[in-house]
């Protein structure tokens, strides 16, 4: 018998998952309609609850992440706990200010009048998590949802089962269980949730699944924030500090075994520094594993392992480092590949693993053309000391975000919006951007009863028409 988890209890065989999900959604809608989640204090308590959960249950969290992903405790703290704590604390300290009406200066033609933007909760928000960072990519959108005063359903990834079970147990303990529910399950559960018609949905995952999420949301016109990843380029020019550049790029390929949406997917290196950069990448990756760590890095499951091993078997590139894999342990060695064919599978799909292709370019123009000939990435990275080079890449390469002379760090900045563009996603969260994404921004205009000039109303005389045109300069 298959059981499905809704909140902390299993649904028995006499109850269909769809029926149980509908009941949870109906209850949450009643709670939201009661106004319970609107006050600033409720929002602050939820955000503080997330912070407390991460502090008090750190050991349990890191153990669950070790089971799912094979990570050590510090890496789990760095990737999942730290970013979420930063985000929750940032929102908690500012949410009262975010909730205030934002006055707008109106044109003279509107006078006398006052205008402002008023923020109101959307209602019920669905958060669909991912397996590669099971806490942060699930809880950070939840921060946005509760800071905006919404009820929420959290659907963790079934591919990280230990983390999913832990979230199902801890979220009702630390947050308002009447307003925030956890539903565990697979893709069928996700579609059953979308069929309920939420007021907004956040999804983190791959592009193909993102299309299915969008299709599932479409019948109900549910707005969706999609964070989908993509092929993130790292452009390395002749004037870059190659030692720092190599360390920083290599770091993203060992962090979580390269299974992060913001890792460098490939490097475009200027020909004059390509060989030295490759040598330094190899040195950095070897240095990172010099503490006796196993050579291979753990991949989440057999399907992802076989995909990555297939890239290694089919590549035409020169192997500068690594290239090994072990199906028994689902591990892939950190690998540096030099000049693979741009048409091979490795270069057509997001790598999402510890494999780093390095391609040679003869100019900045060539690098920009290469990136722009492919779907828009979630992040673009450029390493240079030249302001002109930096400005060109930022102006001419479209990407969800960009970092100059480093990688990933923009995700830790709650002051910056985070999200994709084109195939790498739509919508934004983090900080105020997340609050606004999960809020309805209502335009409000207040007029007095007087003056009430007659010429505004029909029937319009010739004089009235001329006056109105003159007022609006139309």
UniProtKB/TrEMBL annotation:
Q: Out of the domains of life, which is the source?
A: Bacteria
Q: Where is the Aldehyde dehydrogenase domain?
A: 32-444
Keyword match NAD? yes
Any one GO cellular component localisation term in the record: cytoplasm
Q: Indicate whether Oxidoreductase appears among the record's keywords.
A: yes
> A Gene Ontology MF term for this entry?
aldehyde dehydrogenase (NAD+) activity
Q: Where is the active site?
A: 227, 261
The residue stretches assigned to a coiled coil in this entry are none
InterPro entries reported for this sequence: Ald_DH/histidinol_DH, Ald_DH_C, Ald_DH_CS_CYS, Ald_DH_N, Aldehyde_DH_dom, Aldehyde_DH_NAD(P)
Q: Which UniProt keywords apply?
A: NAD, Oxidoreductase
- Listed GO biological process terms: aldehyde metabolic process
Would you identify the family this protein belongs to, as annotated? Belongs to the aldehyde dehydrogenase family.
Protein name as annotated = Aldehyde dehydrogenase
């Amino acid at each position: 018998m298959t059981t499905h988890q809704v909140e902390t209890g299993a649904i028995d065989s006499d109850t269909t998952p769809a029926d149980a999900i509908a009941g949870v959604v109906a209850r949450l809608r009643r709670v939201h309609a009661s106004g319970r989640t609107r006050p600033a204090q409720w929002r602050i308590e939820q955000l503080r609850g997330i912070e407390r959960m991460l502090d008090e249950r750190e050991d349990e969290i890191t153990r669950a992440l070790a089971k799912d992903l094979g990570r050590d405790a510090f890496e789990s703290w760095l990737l999942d706990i730290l970013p979420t704590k930063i985000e929750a604390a940032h929102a908690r300290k500012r949410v009262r200010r975010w909730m205030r009406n934002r006055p707008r200066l109106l044109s003279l033609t509107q006078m006398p009048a006052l205008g402002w933007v008023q923020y109101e909760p959307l209602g019920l928000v669905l958060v669909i998590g991912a397996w590669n960072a099971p806490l942060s990519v699930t809880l950070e959108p939840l921060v946005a949802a509760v800071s905006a005063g919404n009820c929420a359903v959290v659907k963790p990834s079934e591919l990280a089962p230990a983390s999913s079970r832990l979230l199902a147990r801890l979220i009702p303990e630390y947050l308002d269980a009447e307003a925030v529910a956890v539903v565990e399950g697979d893709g069928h559960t996700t579609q059953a949730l979308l069929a309920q018609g939420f007021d907004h949905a956040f999804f983190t995952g791959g592009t193909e699944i993102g299309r299915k999420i969008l299709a599932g949301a479409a019948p109900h016109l549910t707005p969706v924030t999609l964070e989908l990843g993509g092929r993130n380029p790292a452009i390395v020019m002749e004037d870059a500090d190659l030692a720092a550049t190599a360390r920083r790029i290599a770091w993203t390929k060992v962090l979580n075994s390269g299974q992060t949406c913001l890792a460098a997917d490939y490097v475009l290196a200027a020909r004059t520094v390509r060989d030295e950069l490759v040598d330094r990448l190899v040195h950095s990756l070897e240095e990172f594993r010099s503490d006796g760590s196993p050579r291979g890095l753990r991949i989440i499951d057999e399907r992802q392992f076989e995909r990555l091993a297939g890239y290694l078997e089919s590549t035409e590139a020169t192997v500068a480092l690594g290239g090994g894999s072990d199906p028994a342990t689902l591990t892939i060695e950190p690998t540096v590949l030099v000049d693979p064919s741009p048409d091979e599978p490795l270069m057509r799909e997001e790598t999402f693993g510890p494999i780093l292709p390095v391609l040679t370019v003869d100019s900045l123009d060539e690098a920009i053309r290469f990136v722009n000939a492919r779907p828009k990435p979630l992040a673009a990275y450029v390493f240079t000391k030249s302001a002109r080079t930096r400005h060109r890449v930022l102006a001419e390469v479209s990407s969800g975000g960009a970092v100059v002379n480093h990688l990933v760090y923009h995700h830790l900045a709650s002051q910056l919006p985070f999200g994709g563009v084109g195939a790498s996603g739509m919508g934004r969260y983090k900080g105020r951007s997340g609050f606004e994404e999960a809020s309805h921004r209502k335009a409000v205009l207040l007029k007095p009863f007087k003056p009430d000039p007659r010429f505004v109303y029909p029937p319009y005389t010739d004089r009235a028409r001329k006056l109105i045109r003159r007022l609006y300069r139309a």
